[in-house]
Amino acid sequence: MPPFLNGRRNRRVSLFAALRVVGSFPTAFLYQDVFALADDRHNGPDDLDARIARAQAEHDTGATRAEARAESRGWAVGIEFVGVVLVSAAIGWGIDNYAGLGTKPWAMIAMLVLGFVAGVYRAMQTTAQFDADPSTGSRK
Fold it and tell me: From what superkingdom does this record's organism come (predicted)?
């Protein structure tokens, strides 16, 4: 009989109790030792500041905030343009396939053209908003 059962054949014994009895339970998993391991790394606040500065320097791309803002605005305009064109094409496809009007390719083509025009109009509107003065709303 294994020594961790201690004469109890039919009783379930937890793994922790079994390992403790056997004596092979690693001390790193004891409650007080886990926190002791974390507390052994007292390097002071200066070391933390140095590590933060080093990590920020590694991840710095060299772009200023204005450049990053301009890039995100450009992505927003592009994604909005593609979304308008795709949604209008899907509407045209739905009209062609489910309306039963017999206009198989023409509704989709017309909606693609309208979607392109709407996308260009919306992109121009959005970029005008980006160029506007936030306090007055007029263009610079």
Answer: Bacteria
In tens, the pLDDT along 7-64 reads 555 445 455 555 555 555 455 455 544 444 444 555 556 677 888 888 888 887 777 8
Q: Are residues 104 and 127 in the same domain?
A: yes
Residue 106 lies in a domain: yes
| Most distant CA pair in the chain, distance | 88
In this structure, the dihedral spanned by the alpha carbons of residues 70, 76, 82 and 85, taken in order and rounded to 10 degrees, is -110
Q: Is residue 47 part of a domain?
A: yes
Separation of alpha carbons 11 and 100, rounded Å = 73
Q: Do residues 122 and 83 lie in contact, with contact meaning Cβ atoms separated by under 8 Å?
A: no
CA distance 119 to 83: 8
The Cα 113–Cα 121 span in angstroms is 12
SS3 state of residue 63: coil
Q: How far apart are CA 73 and CA 128, in angstroms?
A: 12
Considering the domain architecture, whether residues 36 and 50 belong to the same structural domain is answered as yes
